[in-house]
Amino acid sequence: MNDDRRKLLTEYLGECWHEVKRPKNEPTVFSKSCIKCKRRITIIRNDPIDRDRTFTTPYDFFALKDTLVERGEWKKFNQFCLNSLDPSVPQWKSETAEDAISAFTDWFLNAPRFCELAGEWLEGKEKP
Ligand SMILES: [Zn+2]
Question: Which of the two residues, 50 and 36, has the higher pLDDT score?
Answer without folding.
Answer: 36
